[in-house]
UniProtKB/TrEMBL annotation:
Pathway: Amino-acid biosynthesis; L-proline biosynthesis; L-proline from L-glutamate 5-semialdehyde: step 1/1
Pyrroline-5-carboxylate reductase dimerisation domain sequence ranges: 167-271
Pfam families linked: F420_oxidored (PF03807), P5CR_dimer (PF14748)
Protein name as annotated: Pyrroline-5-carboxylate reductase
Organism of derivation: Alicyclobacillus cellulosilyticus
Function (record text): Catalyzes the reduction of 1-pyrroline-5-carboxylate (PCA) to L-proline.
Amino acid sequence: MAEAGLMARGIFIIGAGSMAEAFIRGVTARGAMAPERVAVVNRRRPERIAELSARYGVREAASWAEMSAAGLVVVAVKPGDVGDALAQAAPFLTGQPVLSFAAGVPISYMQEKIGRRSPVVRTMPNIPVAVQAGVTAVAFDEQIRPQDREDVLFLLRQLGEVVELPETRMDAVTALCGSGPGFLCYILEAMEDAAADMGFTRDEARRLLVQTLAGTAEVLRAWGISPAELRARVTSPNGTTHAGVTAMEQAGLKHVVAAALTAAARRAEELGRTYRG
Ligand SMILES: NC(=O)C1=CN([C@@H]2O[C@H](COP(=O)(O)OP(=O)(O)OC[C@H]3O[C@@H](n4cnc5c(N)ncnc54)[C@H](O)[C@@H]3O)[C@@H](O)[C@H]2O)C=CC1
Ligand SMILES: O=C(O)[C@@H]1CCC=N1
């Protein structure tokens, strides 16, 4: 008899924080995974598992040994805790994929911690995965079996878009998509401050700006055009957008944004070096 696949064997999650919750919500929301097939362990705060259980119907793992039967092990702990969590998991791994959400932690480091007992999947999600509108960049190690790869991609797609990349692109994608919501929010903060100076209340400004951002993203997607093209469409000759963009150009905004992305990617690389032994 063929061995049951990843989906039938269920998921074992280490860590019950916000990423674990986003993942659980995504994979159970539309029935991709039955919640009773999801088992969770947490180091502290046992009430977190009770919360996840009440909200989504997942259950607390009876013991770490339960991991052996799972089709997928998810490591949803802070980067600094990944080494310990994987060392603790290693004896129970039986070749099922181990998926990590930890920013900056390389596949080679994780492989070392688990004594190469399972293929490792390194991901970089962003915060909108919490509402199933995220982007998750994913790098597989070459040991992954084709069917496991498909199943992992299917599960991650429940959280939004998925982009497969070589691991060498992870630092750059961390800057672009992982930190990206932070950068867009910084620009929105600046627009909110300017709106306050123009006499809007914070609440009014936020409602107007959030819908402007969401609507712009929606139209870019619906029409399939580039940001430069959409900008050209809203820019009347000598009009208001033209005046504003000219001020942005004069202040060197494109250079500032490029410097921000470079700084973030460099920092991701530096943080990653901590785990390279
Ligand atoms: N929150 C976010 O926006 C994003 C998070 N990530 C990554 O997701 C990972 C998890 O982040 P959060 O969910 O925000 O962290 P969190 O701190 O909310 O949750 C981590 C949980 O894991 C538990 N834990 C730690 N070591 C453990 C162990 N050995 N065994 C069992 N449980 C253990 C902790 O007690 C805690 O409850 C991080 O590696 C982070 O880099 C990546 C992208 C975005
Ligand atoms: O700021 C950070 O380091 C993490 C990685 C991507 C989003 N937050």
